[in-house]
Amino acid sequence: MQNGAMLGSGDSRMAHALINPLVPSREDSAQARAAQAALGRDEAGRATLVLRVGAEGEERTLDLPPLVTSMLKDLLRTIAAGKAVSLIPLEAEITTQQAAELLNVSRPFVIGLIEKGSLPARMVGNQRRLPLQEVLAYKAENRASRREALAELAEQDRALGLE
């Protein structure tokens, strides 16, 4: 399956998933921890997962590809920690409000980033749409820059004996 095959750009389910992620219950988290523990025994990452599908007596099995197995392990880790999850294709486009929520900034700040050329966007009617992949890349670059600046400050503190 190609990226984005599950939900298309502009799909209202994508917007719903981004704004309303699935929040695991305590029982969900406990079951995820148990499944994660069972998968955790595969230290080399070579285990193949087999999915049983169908009603009892009419079951069939499906071998899951390594990509899905890897994603499932990440999903279980997140749910086991009690964190909310969303599944959104990287090719999706999001609104300025969704980008602001993702970046933990205000919507006017996102609009400023667009106007400065820091984030690409296109107009759909009178609304801006941003490629999710670009917003995530900006977030990662921003985080890396902050960490680098913090490391520099820590080094300056050490050099000045201010630890």
From TrEMBL:
Q: Does the keyword DNA-binding apply?
A: yes
Single Gene Ontology MF annotation: DNA binding
| Pfam families registered for this protein in UniProt | HTH_17 (PF12728)
Query: What keyword terms does UniProt attach to this protein?
Result: DNA-binding
Q: Signal peptide location in the record?
A: none
- Which residues are in the Helix-turn-helix domain? 95-143
Write the protein's name.
DNA-binding protein
Q: Organism classification, top ranks?
A: Bacteria, Pseudomonadati, Pseudomonadota, Alphaproteobacteria, Hyphomicrobiales
